[in-house]
Amino acid sequence: MATLLGPESPWTGGKRRTRNRNVLTRIRHSQIGGRRFGRGTQLPEVLLQERDKRAKWHGIPVLVQELYESSHLNSDFTRTHAVLKELSSLLSMEAMSIVTEDRKAAQESTFPNTYTFDLFGGVDLLVELLMRPTLTTLQKPKMNDDLVKDCLSVLYNCCICTEGVTKSLATRDDFVSFLFTLMTNKKTFLQTATLIEDILGVKKEMIQLEWIPDLSGLVQSFDQQQLANFCRILSVTISEPDVGNDDKHTLLAKNAQQKRNTSPSRAEVNQVTLLNIPGFIERLCKLATRKVSEATGTPNFLQELEEWYTWLDNTLVLDALMQIATDEAEHSSTESSDESSLASIPQWQRLPQSMKIVHEIMYKVEVLYVLCVLLMGRQRNQVHKMLAEFRLIPGLNNLFDKLIWRKFTASNHVVHGQNENCDCSPEISFKIQFLRLLQSFSDHHENKYLLLNVQELNELSAISLKANIPEVEALVNTDRSLVCDGKKGLLTRLLTVMKREPPDSSFRFWQARAVESFLRGATSYADQMFLLKRGLLEHILFCIIDSGCKSRDVLQSYFDLLGELMKFNIDAFKRFNTYVNTEEKFQVFLNQINSSLVDSNMLVRCIVLSLDRFESQTEDVKVVEVLSECCLLSYMARVENRLSFLFRLINIINVQTLTQENVSCLNTSLVILMLARRRGKLPFYLNALREKEYSEKYPGCLLNNFHNLLRFWQHHYLNKDKDSTCLENSSCIPFSFWKESVSVLLEGDRTSPCAIISYIDEPYMELDRDLLEV
Known about the structure:
Elements: H1 21-29, H2 45-55, H3 60-69, H4 78-99, H5 104-107, H6 113-119, H7 122-135, H8 145-161, H9 165-170, H10 173-182, H11 186-202, H12 215-221, H13 224-238, H14 251-260, H15 266-275, H16 280-289, H17 301-309, H18 315-334, H19 339-343, H20 353-375, H21 380-389, H22 392-404, H23 426-442, H24 454-466, H25 473-476, H26 490-498, H27 507-519, H28 525-532, H29 536-546, H30 552-566, H31 570-579, H32 583-595, H33 597-614, H34 621-629, H35 631-637, H36 639-651, H37 663-678, H38 682-695, H39 701-717, H40 721-731, H41 735-745
């Protein structure tokens, strides 16, 4: 196969052998006619052949020399193509050995074939051949499509196997731009897309899509298959550069970076460029939701799919097979269709229906990723409007049972963690990307109700009516012509499969995140009851207490979901008490919470906030009953337990270690103190922190740390409208009270009973240090 895609080259990062160093130095500095790609062709052929035997170059230098000599301006390229095919067979074999991890044969050579090809100027020569039409009008005849395809495939093989080739090509902006022009030709599209994706992946500076000549026309010329392939390239151009795990990157460093970069990033500019292409989002929605034939031809379709996948681990390899099959079908349509003609088609080219389905799944993974990135960008509302208009959610709902979440689950499925870059099968990648899209779609947006059908929307209205509370405005404003069809909406279908997942399945993490996003924002009693009626709370508690789940990621996602589900909802706390009906269960639950406060602090915040509200509703008999009976509320009502949480929340973070993952611990500690301030008990809590320091024999440590954290809080939140709105919505505490409370705590008057400084003895004060600079 000409086009290959595999893991990183085993040759990269290793030391090149120095044998024949003098000869190689001469090769590197030699030139023919001033052309860099001619290095080595000036050497006598006898010398090259003699050194070839000793260095095991497999005749590549001589072939490169012949390739150069046969590719003059007036060449008809017949001999050029023949030589290139001979070279391609050597290079593709080596690339295949790397893709299949059978590296022994490749390592027998002192220099890998592709390294030798590049060393003698082969890569530069192919680049010059491809770009020659843009550099001169004298060339006759032009290169045919097959020759262009082979040139691209050889270049790609070199990128796989040879250190530095990809990086070198990435520095050539003229070549990168030229490659996009080749995508207009369907016959060379696949090879071009393969090479562009690899080059853009290592390019130091992200390409600017608006620099591509007539990008809009190019994209509009693509058929649906080409557009899906193009999404792989787009994913590199619209995603912010990966600077490490986002959750582990400190907020201090991020804030400093944002201060330096005030203008939109290239990724953000590229997102705008794409959204301005007429019909682009509509076509992506059609790709994401188009149906796949169910005529698999075998009852063991998924097992067959997995067998194929053991060696087809990349979309582009599969694309190549699909193209072969398509070309063969086109050829057969013009020839005899009798049995002898069919028999002439190799068995491996007769692709099963399962292969066509996994091909479609791979396309959808790429499309959903692009849509997900756009949903999280600055143009989120514009994207949301278009996704609703083009019925993305109803379309995905119609695919859910038949494609996205089939009932069959292979026993040998290895489900990886939530790392989006994990080496997953197409099925697993598709499910995770689908769940990430749902999470992005629902999070803090009124369009979340499109995940329901009309009957379910009516159910929400009925819940509000029964509780004598007004309907949520977003529910009232939902366009019912755009919601899900069928007996179940997408959210309900998701809940159904969520309950069937094994305890430690990483799908649980993404499923919980997707459902939690539906609840996030301003708390809705009707939304909570809708999910409570479907047994979600009992399912979560089973997973936390009884299932034996050990995954911290899954447990964290369930704690967060439980917090959103129970917040301010007296019925939820009553259900909790019904399930956790023994002291043993309650202790298991508490142990899970206490084992990692970073994971569980959002649930702690929910309990504290809910308790505070319920204690102000003592005229309600139902509330009083639950307050007196619920073990969880009784536990949090004891001030020593709230103080214990406060001590640990402040102690596990500091300004230098704050990340997006653990900054919630700071906000939870603030909630505890804000509620104490409302009740006039803030001095009591601050004094308790001081006493804790002295009892632990580290006076000033907790309070100095908390003071610095609050200074960072001001620096971080006072300039971010979105983050401040999230704090207000999630806590039902006006952000003005958040700001005021932090200001009171940071007051510089040592006589103020509500200022942290009043509880730090002068010898232990460290407040003059500026910790807000990286």
